[in-house]
Amino acid sequence: MIAFATALEPLRAANRMLGYEAYHWRIASVDGKPVYASNRVECAANTSLEEERRKMAGQDRPSMVIVCSGLNVEKYSQRTVFAWLREEYNRGVAIGGLCTGAHVLAQAGLLSGRRCAIHWENLPGFSETFPKANVYADLFEVDGNIYTCAGGTAALDMMLKLIGDDFDDNLVNRVCEQVLTDRVRSPTDRQRLPLRARLGVQNSKILTIIELMEAHLAEPLSLIEIADHVGLSRRQIERLFRQEMGRSPARYYLEIRLDRARHLLIQSTLPVVEVAVACGFVSASHFSKCYRELYARSPQQERADRKLAA
């Protein structure tokens, strides 16, 4: 709902600032019926895909179609939607995706070889499922006629860029004042809080080490390699981690690899052995043992529980 609202509101504000309706929109669902957001708010639809197909050749043909999706998108499979998106794209209509909308666009075959953005929580599963898409943990990406953003308030930044392209910075600034934001963030601004704020850690050496670990999950670095990189001894690193993180560097490294594995189990259909390899484990049995120790259930149970919850 945040992404949905922050995509529409800048357009409404732009119309108000301009004094005329430069932007028009309508809400479409597959069958034209209302759709419930994840917060249980009902969103009325103005049109169905069948009606949209009839509008393709007329004066109501859209210049852009934006897909808004959220949780459990990896379980979504609607061939009618995928075919419709391809039809719109092939007729020159720009295609956008909000939050996890990039997943729907990729399923429709529109992101092969394209730069795209998706919410950081969904990035591991997305990159494994759609290796031909060039996915980034950016706020938003524009590649030709394809627009994707990471969701949340990043939708605001992407729409402000669109308004700036159509008009000028003066209008963008006036819209920003209306919606009480002080700037348009760059597409490459980080999605997540900086490590310093996210972990509550101030030690720059610890932060550098954690960044190294997060960048090498599939092929973990040894503690000696990490020590060489940051100019500390193994003993110094061990002591720093005990003081700042409350556990050994090896344990912390294992936990972030297992966290990535959990996202892959939930968001992808990769076999457990491939999830293990993608997270730097030499065998499925060792991976399962470590996973059970941390989460009190096996990788197979994690995936089964997620299916039941869905």
Characterization of this structure:
By secondary structure, the chain is an alpha/beta fold. 51% of the residues lie in helices and 11% in strands. The chain has 15 helices and 10 strands. A 4-stranded mixed β-sheet has the order 5-6-10-9, sandwiched between helices. The chain has a two-stranded parallel ribbon with strand order 1-4. Strands 2-3 form a two-stranded antiparallel sheet. Strand 5, helix 3 and strand 6 form a beta-alpha-beta unit. Helix 1 (2-18) runs parallel beside helix 6 (154-166), helix 5 crosses helix 12 (249-267) and helix 6 (154-166) packs antiparallel against helix 7. The longest helix has 19 residues, at 249-267. It is globular. The model has no long low-confidence stretch (mean pLDDT 89).
Order of helices and strands: HEEEEHEHEHEHEEEHHHHHHHHHH
Largest sheet: 4 strands, mixed
Task: Please state the CA-atom Rg, rounded to the nearest Å.
Answer: 22 Å
Class by alpha and beta content: alpha/beta
- Enumerate how many helices there are, as a single number: 15
Helix content: 40-55%
In the predicted model, the low-confidence regions spanning at least 5 consecutive residues are none
User: Going across the major beta sheet, what is the strand order?
Assistant: 5-6-10-9
Overall form:
globular
The averaged pLDDT comes out at 89
Amino-to-carboxy terminus distance:
20 Å
What fraction strand? Answer: 5-15%
Number of strands: 10
Could you write a compact summary of the structure shown?
The chain has 310 residues and is of the alpha/beta class.
